[in-house]
Amino acid sequence: MDQQDRQVERQRGSEASDFALIRVALYKRMKAIAAFPILLAFCAVTVVLALPKRYEATATVQIDPRQRSKSTISDAPDLEPHQQTIEAEMSALQSAPVIRGAIDALHLDDDPEFKSYWPATWLSRLLGATPERNTEAALLKRLSVSRLRNTLLVSIRISSSDPVKSARIANAVADAYLKDWAAGKSSAETAATMLGQRLKDDIDGDGIITESERVFASLLAQFGQNSEVPGPSIVAAAVPPREATAAKPARTAGVAFALGLVAAVGLALLLEFKTSTRASRVEHAFACPHMTSLPTIPAHDATSARACRFVLAEPRGQYAEAVRETCRELEKRRSGAPSRLTLVVSALPGEGAECLASNIAHQYAVAGHSPLLVDADLRMGSLTRQLAGRSSSGLLDQIVNRKPVESAILRDCATGLHFLPACGPTPIPLPVRDILRSKAFADSMTALKRDFVTIVMSGPPLLTVGDAHTLAELADDIVFVTAWQKTPKRLARQALGKIAAHQPKIVGAALTDIADREDTAIMSLYEILEEMRTVAPVPAFRTHAA
């Protein structure tokens, strides 16, 4: 019983969570949910009012007056063949002979309203259609044939921009149908007459006609003379309408508003689902867990030293909270180790790897760990330029000059952070790759791990140079940074392939450039459009140089 109670509680909690997700999704995108249906209704009414006026004329034809009494019989077996007869006659009203007869009677082939122009004419000829077939198709689009309730009456409705023309065409279609029916009846009577003449010629029974024809002739002689069929007739001829067909803008606006509201609500839920399942999408795309999502740093701070100390500048912001979440994930993997070296790398330049590494180190410093931040991007040294642009020496200089790297470490008195720049202003003639693979570099890293409990290293991009592979061999943990919805997933997976041999060291992926907003805040229309743009799959049209 207790297990059932727990299962019920979990189900109730899941339902409450789903309801909260729906409520938040609708609340955040309230502006779009309200604006989209109104905009769609306005556009629909504008289109309806801009359409040309149409006049509809209706002619009524009775199929067979003698079967009127049968229409009131409720017996289903009798009504089924009757219904089939009505449907067959309605199909005959829209047949090619009837349509062509109406067109020829009114010379509609030369009517501009039914005549197609270039490029429609050129395209139809390319597909093998003739101008006459195009006129027939145009008339069929304006023709509507329907049965009046459960009667033998069929209405022929024609729409046209000219009220007089619509009435003339409706009457012409009705007349063409009567002529076609009369022609068919005349053919049947001619066949019966010919069969009678053949019977007279076959008095001796010498086999001129078959036995089945004899039976048919006997039935015709018994019943045909007393079953004169009057055939269809025009009950009401079409007259020119006085007013155009009502556009009904109010009804159109209501339908468009309802459809727009349903579409807006569905889009809001879809966008919320897309953003809420970001962690599972990252794991599926990169085969590594999702660590955290870092909001976009403002443009005026992105290229300054403030971005490298964002956890100090805005300690209560979303970025600082994301950095603290990253530090918590790293601490879970420490497991009592005396020292831990964390390498922060990205696939391409400008994805924020050096900024995240600096903020992780500053967060450790605020927490009292006295960490060491190392700028291991020995070629570019972007972190060195932002934090210690006037440094006289760095990691690269000390190794080349065979001096201890500890003497090049700088200390921030305000936070207690130690920083080892990449290099000084003097150019180094030796190749960086050889320096990273040297024994002196490995010994320097061992010495640093002996002196510092926490080391955060900012590495070069994985796809530009091969230095990060060497650094990954020395690291204990690796944090992969990628700009979400900006860096193509193909390139991100290619970058992770560079360090596939160190897969157990990869703690997870940190996503940068995520829109910074509160989940309970109402988004602007611009933010919603940006959200739609970012969640949409965008192919990479540019290739990044290695």
From TrEMBL:
It is a multi-pass membrane protein. Keywords: ATP-binding, Cell membrane, Membrane, Nucleotide-binding, Transmembrane, Transmembrane helix. Residues 23-103 form the Polysaccharide chain length determinant N-terminal domain. The keyword Mitochondrion does not apply. The chain crosses the membrane at residues 32-51. It is found in: Cell membrane. Its main location: membrane. One of its GO terms (molecular function) is protein tyrosine kinase activity. CDD domains: BY-kinase (cd05387). GO terms for cellular component: plasma membrane. Signal peptide: none annotated. InterPro entries: Bact_polysacc_biosynth/exp, LPS_length_determ_N, P-loop_NTPase, Wzc-like_C. This is Lipopolysaccharide biosynthesis protein. It comes from Hyphomicrobium denitrificans 1NES1.
